[in-house]
């Protein structure tokens, strides 16, 4: 069954309806995700043991998008829509409260304890040699 050709006014009205539907969808998604975004998503429940209180700290992010499209012409019409989203969370560290003093303690990746000292040691060995080599080049050219 052939679709009758649309007038420019009809096509504009349909495009407007698609854009409105996409806008409503994005509003609903933002409302639902926004309702879940709170301080508790980043700061965990405090844990108290003896005289120490620990508050977990994390990084959280939310992203989403959506859209709608429509193509119309003399012989073809198309409609479409879509959306998606993602949420991430990763631990960063914790706040330690002891005897009235609060200290932030970052959580480092496990490889940092081996890689960072190795890089610093390598730089300490290579830097003086590189400096002598550059100084020698300057004397030879001058």
Number of E-type strands: 4
Strand-residue fraction?
35-45%
Continuous helix count: 3
Structurally, how many domains make up the residues?
2
Poorly predicted segments: 5-14
Report mean pLDDT, rounded to a whole number: 76
Shape: flat
Class derived from helix and strand content:
alpha+beta
Main traits of this protein?
single chain; 142 residues; alpha+beta; 4-stranded antiparallel β-sheet; 3 helices; flat
Topology, pairings included?
Elements: H1 8-36, H2 39-42, E1 47-49, E2 52-72, E3 77-98, E4 101-106, H3 112-141
Antiparallel strand pairs: 1-2, 2-3, 3-4
Can you characterise this structure?
By secondary structure, the protein is an alpha+beta fold. The protein has two domains: 8-107, no CATH class; 109-142. 44% of the residues lie in helices and 37% in strands. It has three helices and four strands, in the order ααββββα. It has helices at 8-36, 39-42, 112-141, and strands at 47-49, 52-72, 77-98, 101-106. Strands 1-2-3-4 form a four-stranded antiparallel β-sheet. It is flat. The termini are far apart. The model is unreliable at 5-14 (pLDDT under 50).
Please outline what is shown here.
44% of the residues lie in helices and 37% in strands. The protein contains three helices and four strands.
